[in-house]
Structure formats: structure tokens, C-alpha cells
Amino acid sequence: MNFELNDDQQAYIASARAFSDNELAPYAAHWDAESVFAKDALRAAGELGFMGMYTPEAAGGLGMGRLDASLIVEELAKGCTTTAAFLTIHNMATAMIGKYCQQAVVDEWCPDLVMGEKLASYCLTEPGAGSDAGSLRTSATLDGDTYVVNGSKVFISGAGETDVLVVMTRTADAGPKGVTALLIPADAEGVQYGKKEHKMGWNAQPTRMITFDNVRVPVSQRLGEEGQVSPLPWRVSMVRIISLLSSVRAARDSGRDGLRTGAQAIRYRHRGFPEHPIQAGRHADRAGCGAANDPTCSQQARQQGPPGDHVLRNGQAFCHGRGIHGVQ
After folding, report:
1. Which of the residues 58, 114, 187, 300 could staple to 52 if both were Cys, CB 3.0 to 4.6 A apart?
2. Full-prediction pTM beyond 0.85?
3. Kind of pairing between the strands at 139-143 and 179-185
4. Both 44 and 97 in a single domain?
5. pLDDT per residue over 185-233, tens digit each?
């Protein structure tokens, strides 16, 4: 098999690298120190197509595969791990809307989402259930042509600053097959936001709890049919990879040769992805997080001070529960 990158992929890398070097890296330490959510940078990323990388072309996105998107994300993570991480979450939610929502909903939301004019959050994690879809309890009860949503989500990236939420809810019996995805405008009546969490890293994006109190959602805003959209493949496809890429960034900036490890792990993942996404994700985690948590790597990064120390903290935050265990 040939694992050499083609001309298009080399062009993706060059474009992402230039954007990262000019629009992310010079400001990343400031954004982290001051907890700045860089919406202007995200809009600029949208102009290059980076906010709709694997959203279907019919919905205005680029329709990329995971390998091409991963090449872009690796370059963006070199500039600002936190911004790159939110970008992947936004991409995941936008792709789900573009693929599964009714055409009228796609037409309403996707043009602005793929341009970064509006932003999306993905809401799965819950108190007491974590990210185990089979155990989530946020309910969506059908009332005529409307769902009534009640429950809470925690550690939601971008919460309070984004425009639309893709919310995983329970519409049937226990287990992942009873989970249904709904699109809920972030300012819908009954949506309430908690305080911004204090974290060890990933400070350039807000993380909050969201409570849904009798939020009414039209059936037309459901993604696919009830129980159709499983959260697992979407999370495995990019969330594990971003933890790897961000950790490779930490390794590189603190003097370690993480590039070769990252490239090997990405290629391994793509050989196994669509058949074995979980196994591939585990290998990606091990490769990237080993670099970010290596004692020599950590010491060198801390000696650098800004920006090396904030890069290290962000890389470690991804490894320890993708930032969740870094909440203080």
C-alpha cells in the first residue's frame, strides 16, 4: 500500500500551516492566559473551508475524508491546540447536521456554520454518566409534533458562546439504541448555562454545564429517525485523533521528536479506521499522550515558559479525559 501524501493533501497541509503560523500561533499564549475564545480566528478558518471539512458538499462543506481533515488539524494544533480542538468539535456537529437533518434545517443552519459565522456545540456528556451514551438520562418526550427536553449536560465545549447545540437525548428504553440527536438553538427558551469551568488547560474556549428545563424542540429538528444517529462513531472519528495531534504538538514544542510518532499513529489509524475505529483510537491515544506526559518533555516545556508551558498543559488536558479530568 502507498502511504505517500498526494498533491491535494500536500496543498491542504501548506494552507493549514500558513493559517496556523499567521493566525493562531502568535496569539495562542495570550488566548490561553486571558481565556479568549477566538471567534474571529474561527471565522477566518471558515473562509478557508476548515469549519466544514467533512460536512457534505450538498450542505456547503468540503466533504473531506478523515485522513485529509486530520492533516489539516495537525497543522492547526501546532498553532493553538485549544482552538483546533474546538474546531474539530464544531466540524463534528456541523457534519451531523448536514448529513442527518431535514433539508429546510440544513438550509437554515449549515451556510453560516461552515463559514464559521455561527458555531456549534456537541452535547453528550452528563453528570453520573460521563460520555457513555447507553447511560445518558436527558429525556426527550414526544408531545404532538414537539419533543420536550429535560436534563443536564456537563463539560460542554463552547457552551454559552455557541449558536446551536447538537444534543443526544433519550427517547426510548435504556441503552444506546434509545438515543436520539436533536438540534436545539442555543438561545431556546428553557436552555440554561452554568458557570465557566476552571481547567488546567484548554482555556481559550469556555466549558460549561447546560440544563434543559422543558425545552420544546420541533420534531423537524431531529437528526434522522429516532435512535438512528449513534454518538460513538462520531466521537471516535476525530476526538481521539485531536488528543493525539495536540500531544504531538506539545512534544514537538518542548524539544521531543513527536512528528514521526504522530505520523505513524495517524497512518495506523487510517489503515484500521473504518473497520476498527476504537482499536485505532486507542493506539493514537497511547502514541500522543506518551509524548505529552513524558517527564523530560514536561521539564523542557516548563523551562521554556510561555508559550511552551501552556502548550504542554493543553496537551496533557487532552490526554486526561480530553480536558475533563483537567477541570479544577
Report:
1. 114
2. no
3. unpaired
4. yes
5. 999 999 999 999 998 888 999 999 999 999 999 999 999 999 887 665 5
